[in-house]
Write a structure and sequence with these properties.
By secondary structure, the protein is an alpha/beta fold. It contains 9 helices and 7 strands, in the order βαβαβαβαβααβαβαα. A 7-stranded parallel β-sheet has the order 3-2-1-4-5-6-7, sandwiched between helices. It binds NADP nicotinamide-adenine-dinucleotide phosphate (NAP).
Length: about 260
């Protein structure tokens, strides 16, 4: 095992539900102390109670990640309360399933604020500390970052931005022991698909997996020092197929979108 999570301090954003909650419990079971954050205190309390069974010093804070100017102070507080942070898991995110005709600049900026600017701000706030502790920076992107799905231009762009940021960071951090990790979930059964102000999901043709399917692939990726993981794994082959002929892939997606709406 290249990176042992036992005894590490892991800050996870968006840990009140879905993938973040499942990962938090997974880290705690590995013997890491977890720091949880999100807006809903009641949900965080439930997840914290489950994590404390395995990692009694784990903690939770309510924070609105859309308040970008507050994130540096939040990061400092989380670090002080946890006694330092080794692993930052940037998981919080919001969906946006809307065709371009009904997007506004405000919607697009809201999506970028949560999915791109907030993880970037947290990274900058904790970078020196993570470098000093030979830690890990994890970004939950999406298969949408690479696959240009219908009605997801703003969401896909925000996820492509965080993927590009993460990959460049690994290059810039080449003389440190920090490793970067990028997660590409496919279709995972979470609240993300039930939030208001989104078009209905429609038939993706892809099996919806339970959140537990995320845990071992993500923890294993970190422990093995691997750059990225797709869940399910076969999405990696789809990415490779797209980049062999992007125009053909987009053509196929147009056919798929037409079939979906007919
Ligand atoms: N589910 C999928 O199929 C799928 C696929 C690809 C990528 N992803 C990505 O996976 C990540 C987790 O999503 P999920 O599927 O687990 O959905 P989820 O259950 O809706 O979780 C989203 C989390 O983000 C938090 N969050 C949202 N806005 C926030 C804000 N302004 N401030 C603080 N926290 C905020 C939510 O907490 P509060 O509401 O309590 O604040 C929640 O804990 C996201 O980045 C998503 O884009 C999911």
């Amino acid at each position: 095992m290249a990176y042992d999570l036992t005894g590490k301090h892991v800050l996870i954003t968006g840990a009140s539900s879905g993938i973040g909650a499942a990962l938090a419990e997974g880290f705690a079971k590995r013997g890491a102390t977890v720091g949880l954050c999100a807006r809903r205190a009641d949900k965080l309390d439930d997840v914290l109670a489950r994590c404390r069974v395995h990692a009694p010093d784990s903690q939770a804070w309510t924070v609105d990640l859309a308040d970008l100017d507050g994130l540096s102070a939040f990061a400092q507080r989380a670090s002080q309360d946890l006694g330092g942070i080794d692993v930052l898991v940037n998981n919080a995110g919001i969906p946006k399933r809307k065709k371009v005709f009904s997007l506004t600049p405000e919607i697009i900026e809201d999506v970028m604020r949560i999915n791109y600017f907030s993880p970037v701000r947290l990274t900058l706030a904790l970078l020196d500390e993570v470098i000093g502790r030979d830690g890990r920076l994890v970004y939950v992107s999406s298969v949408a970052a690479r696959l240009s799905p219908p009605a997801e231009s703003s969401y896909s762009a925000s996820k492509a931005a965080i993927s590009a940021w993460a990959e460049c960071l690994q290059v810039d951090l080449r003389d440190t022991k920090v490793k970067i990790h990028v997660v590409y979930p496919g279709v995972i059964d979470t609240e993300l698909f039930h939030l208001p102000d989104n078009d209905p999901l429609g038939n993706t043709g892809v099996e919806m997996l339970p959140v537990d399917a995320m845990v071992e692939p993500v923890l294993g990726m970190i422990e093995r020092d691997e750059l990225e993981v797709a869940v399910p794994e076969w999405f990696g082959d789809v990415f490779a197929g797209k980049y062999r002929d992007v125009a053909a892939f987009i053509g196929g997606t147009i056919e798929f979108a037409r079939a979906q709406s007919s």
